[in-house]
Target: phosphoenolpyruvate carboxykinase (ATP)
Amino acid sequence: MNIRQTILAKKLIVNPSNRQMRTMAADMETTTEFGSPSYISKIKNRSAKFTYIVDNVPLGVAQKPISEEKASMIEKQILTYLEGQEVIQIDRLMGMGSAAIKCRLYITKQWARIAMKWANTLFPPMEGQSAMEADIVSIYVPELNEGNITIFADMKKRVTYITGTDYFGESKKSFLRQAMYMMKEKGGLGLHAGSKVLRIKKGEGQLQDVGFILFGLSGTGKTTLTVHDHHLTGEEGVVIRQDDVVLMHENGYCFGTENGFYIKTEGLEPSQKVLYQAAVSENAVFDNIWVGEQGKVDFCNIDITSNGRGVVLREEIAMTDEEVDLSKADKVIFITRRNDIMPVVAKLTPEQGAAFFMLGESIETSAGDPTKAGQSKREVGTNPFIVGPEGLEGNRLLKILKANPDMECYILNTGSVGAGKDFSGEKITIKISTEIMKQIAKEGITWELDKDWGYLVPKEIEGIDISKYRPQQYYSVEAYQGLVEKLRKERINWLKQFKELDREILEVIAHSVPERAAI
Model:
């Protein structure tokens, strides 16, 4: 049996409408005041520690292997079980145009709510797609192996099996993981990044579109910056492309993947106009939010979980248009949230860009893990869905950046500067961060060399008094150098675990000749 063609089931329900799926899931629904459905899942987060990759491809440091033999045994168990079940088949396209990827989800009928949400994240299928072989397939059986979550992806077959969890994010990410791997096999990179266009005028010149992609771990403000208008008015403006995953070609073109945004709802309020307006639409679908009497929604109540979520339609996000692709990632922004010696913004060389991609750096917040608040945390590419040796991802990015010298990389700190024992640091506000991005697009920043790290830091930024954002002023020379060397050591130790990483990427963090010799 060709699993990407069809499965055997007691009854196969092929591409039911959203209305039909909502009816199937009616017994699980709480209807909100907006007329939208809300559901409670038993599992409220992704199960990364129970997610495996079949070991028929090279794996990286952070990935867990499962043998082909064990995977085949579980696959057989799942497919045999489905022969006696009613199963929904949903076909969708990832991305638009001739390069769109044919995706298919199989899920048992009782979990129609998951199928409905997933259908809203991608694009409607092409004519006759239900009878075609899919490019990527996920087979999702939440009720099987309950209490023993098992998720595994077979990258050669382009199939993912999910059992024991009813968390929607598993279905969404299963397709994106496979698509990112496919893009890497074609010579590009799958990136866990938002994308947008800033349409700006430089001086008295013509309008110019500047493409941005934004990387950032949870809590860094990536979504906020992705959907912000940067206070551009008149002919100038913003176009939002994607908020989660883009597939970058060797020439810097970024293929958009999704037609719906999967947003965190915690603390969502009317002042966050772009996301809030989409969230209060009757077309939104929620998981694990607080819904009181008469369907009253309270996004600030996190008694159920702090990971409340909603799938909202891209067309209901202000500042989107008909396009999802980015013609070029002109500016690559690595968002971090640190509170001491990290400058408010820094401009990077291609080698430094690849290094900070590999570092995927931020600090833990009290909301994430209170016991580790303030400590560094890192994830290569800010992407927990990488398959394969992580160092090769950094090498590939460096190759792309060198081949496209018009692409520029920056670090953007959204935390604070100068924190110490009795000072929490000079806070970097959203207003500052969004203005900096605008000035990056307009080339309104004058740069100077940071001698400790070798990157460029702002001497002047149009419209911003940056005097209070220079970290050196908050420390003695000895204290500052101590923090620099502590962070440098952390970074080098992190990068050294990736054996395939090009030496020149590691060396830019070491920076000085004696330090380079030591590695």
